[in-house]
Each structure stands twice: as C-alpha cells, then as structure tokens.
C-alpha cells in the first residue's frame, strides 16, 4: 500500500533512535497526553513476555503468513528480529489521527519509497544516560551494550528530513517537544 492510497487527513510518524534512548517511554507518554495520537502496536518475531514495548509476538512462520496475506503496511529486519507495522493503522490515518510507530533508521529509505509523506522523529540521549538505561534494563551483556552505544551514533540515512528530540532529561519535556514538532498542543502533563 502506498501513501497515495491513504487519505491525507492523518499523518504517519516514524520514531527512531538508539535502543535505550526512551522511544517507547516518550511514545506512551505522548499518547496519554494527546488522545488524537495513536501508537501502532508492532508485530515482532519475539515472545510477548520478553520485555520491552507492548507488541504482538509471532513466530517466523506467522510473520511470513502475515506478509503473504498483506497484513503489514511496512516491515523490516533488525537485530535478528523481524518487525512490522500492521495495515490496520490505515483506518486511524483515514480518521485524521496521527499514527506513531517505533521504527528503524535503516528501514526508512524503503518505507519512504511507499509512503513519501512519512514524518521522522529521532529520539536521542547523551551517551552516559543511554549506557545507564541499557544497564538498568538488564537485557544485554556489557559487550552488547558497548556495541549498542556505538550503533547509537548511526545517523538517519542521507536525504531524509527529520526532527530530533533529546530525551536525556525529563520525559515530560520530551513529550512537549514531540507534540510541538507534530504541530499539536499538549493537553495533559
């Protein structure tokens, strides 16, 4: 499905950045503050009880079946897992909602080929905060954390416009920045 197939009423926003920058925290808080925002629940080839964001966990076989059935608006692979944004978000876009999804910087060029109107927000944080967050969540070894810290410096692919939000401080401030970037007004703290 291409962006041309969607009504222009809503906007689709990819939120990207290094693991541990707080993308999920900012997305969840923004959706609580602004009811016109919709967060896409991603389909991931990871068990639902493995931690991290609220997602739909599927096997590789079920992911393949979803691809074959046209159930995904976009899909990509990263960190040994497969990710997809379900096509069901199109209904919210047609209703004029802003749909946010936690995306992948590396997948942006392909996603933008099919949806050139995509807006991109990059959530960043300083290296010290990122390191602390990764250690606190306890999902990676020290070596894996160091690799993630190095990958965190990877930029958005050239030619893709984006807005950057530094999430090193208070989540409330990051949410206010996100809502301002989306042209919305914060309704709740």
TrEMBL record:
InterPro entries: GK/Ca_channel_bsu, Guanylate_kin-like_dom, P-loop_NTPase, PhnN
Keywords: ATP-binding, Nucleotide-binding, Transferase
Gene3D superfamilies named in the record: P-loop containing nucleotide triphosphate hydrolases
Keyword Mitochondrion listed: no
GO biological process, one term: 5-phosphoribose 1-diphosphate biosynthetic process
Pfam families: Guanylate_kin
Enzyme class: transferase
Recorded coiled-coil stretches: none
UniProt-annotated binding residues for ATP: 17-24
GO CC terms in record: cytosol
Guanylate kinase-like domain sequence ranges: 10-183
Annotated metabolic or biological route of this protein: Metabolic intermediate biosynthesis; 5-phospho-alpha-D-ribose 1-diphosphate biosynthesis; 5-phospho-alpha-D-ribose 1-diphosphate from D-ribose 5-phosphate (route II): step 3/3
Alphabetized PANTHER family for the sequence: GUANYLATE KINASE-RELATED (PTHR23117), RIBOSE 1,5-BISPHOSPHATE PHOSPHOKINASE PHNN (PTHR23117:SF8)
UniProt cross-references to NCBIfam families, sorted A to Z: phosphon_PhnN
UniProt family annotation: Belongs to the ribose 1,5-bisphosphokinase family.
Function: Catalyzes the phosphorylation of ribose 1,5-bisphosphate to 5-phospho-D-ribosyl alpha-1-diphosphate (PRPP).
Protein name (database record): Ribose 1,5-bisphosphate phosphokinase PhnN
Gene that encodes it: phnN
